[in-house]
Backbone:
């Protein structure tokens, strides 16, 4: 196959399509032959990214051929590998009942600064995660209800529940926590909903939280489903002062492509590249390349799936900005976190008062 290069992809839902491979430009030539550890198939690399900049006002003038090329490549890749097993054991009726009966719960997972000086608002950062509670009071994980919600086009309703809960019902207690900032995921269906920007603007106008303490995480899949709508919404959010994170970076077809057109504050490096960087030289090289590229663009990085101290040590050596994963902190109920902070605050006040009396 003279004149062509093949890459191997493992553990990803989608392939990477670039030529020359943008990630590979930052790697040594010997490291550029394989994208990820362990072959599961191969694809031909192809150049996608046009020159220029992108925003809502220029959305209609974007080179449609490149976008179609990206979407077609995505479809070819899905046809190349067998589809994932069907997930979503919870029925639509059960999900709608949970929405009506307020049987969803917010969990929070800590995101810590990996380096000294890598601070988000000077304090801890948490990503908000979602759980459902069944009629028997047992927690239901997202993998059991999100696929059903996506298939039945009710993810925007779930996103609205999350936003009301976090930014309107819990906002006063969150705002009392010093420099506390949160990250909230937005689905592709919300980006496709023409009513969603107005809803979001209304919520942000009413919340007690400063906009720069709220980060919205958007995946590449959400962007490609509605490029113009995504551009307009991201401009709106940044205009309010909110921050934007591009989630699962590196796993999709057009991760690097979107950096040319969307201004983001954070890149969240896909966890399949992170979890084994202490033992896989290829994963280590890819994370190093993504991190260096992001820093060159003045974008901060978050490593996902940080499983233990060995991985965290490697991330510190690479100077990745933030880390998230079970090795950093397990997800826990947001309500418990807020309650613990509320109980701790009076104790800090009492200790400070006693110290002043002794002095």
Residues:
């Amino acid at each position: 196959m003279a004149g062509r290069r093949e890459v191997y992809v493992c553990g990803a839902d989608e392939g990477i399509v670039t030529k020359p491979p943008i990630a590979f430009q930052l790697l040594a030539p010997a490291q550029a032959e394989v994208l990820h550890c362990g072959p599961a198939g191969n694809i031909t690399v192809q150049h996608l990214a046009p020159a220029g900049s992108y925003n809502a006002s220029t959305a209609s003038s974007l080179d449609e051929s490149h976008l179609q090329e990206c979407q077609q490549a995505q479809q070819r890749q899905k046809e190349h590998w067998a589809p994932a097993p069907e997930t979503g054991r919870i029925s639509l009726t059960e999900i709608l009942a949970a929405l009506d009966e307020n049987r969803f719960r917010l969990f929070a997972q800590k995101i810590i600064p990996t380096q000294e000086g890598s601070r988000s608002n000077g304090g801890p950062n948490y990503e908000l995660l979602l759980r459902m509670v069944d009629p028997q009071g047992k927690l239901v994980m997202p993998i059991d209800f999100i696929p059903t919600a996506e298939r039945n086009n009710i993810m925007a309703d779930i996103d609205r529940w999350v936003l009301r809960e976090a930014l309107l019902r819990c906002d006063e207690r969150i705002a009392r926590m010093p420099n506390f900032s949160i990250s909230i995921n937005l689905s592709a269906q919300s980006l496709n909903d023409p009513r969603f920007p107005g809803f979001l603007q209304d919520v942000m106008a009413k919340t007690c939280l400063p906009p720069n303490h709220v980060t919205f995480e958007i995946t590449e899949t959400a962007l490609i489903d509605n490029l113009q709508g995504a551009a307009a919404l991201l401009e709106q959010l940044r205009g309010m002062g909110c921050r934007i994170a591009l989630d699962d970076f590196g796993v999709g077809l057009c991760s690097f492509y979107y950096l040319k057109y969307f201004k983001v504050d954070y890149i969240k490096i896909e966890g399949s590249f992170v979890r084994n960087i202490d033992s896989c030289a290829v994963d280590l090289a890819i994370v190093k390349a993504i991190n260096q590229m992001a820093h060159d663009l003045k974008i901060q990085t978050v490593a996902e799936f940080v499983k233990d101290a060995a991985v965290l040590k490697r991330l510190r050596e690479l100077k990745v900005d933030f880390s998230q994963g079970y090795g950093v902190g397990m997800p826990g109920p947001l309500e418990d976190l807020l309650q613990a902070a509320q109980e701790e605050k009076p104790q800090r006040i009492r200790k400070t008062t006693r110290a002043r009396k002794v002095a």
Observations:
- The domain at 92-346 is CATH 3.20.20.450 (TIM Barrel).
- DSSP finds 15 helices and twelve strands in the chain.
- The first helix runs from residue 22 to 25.
- The longest strand covers residues 104-113.
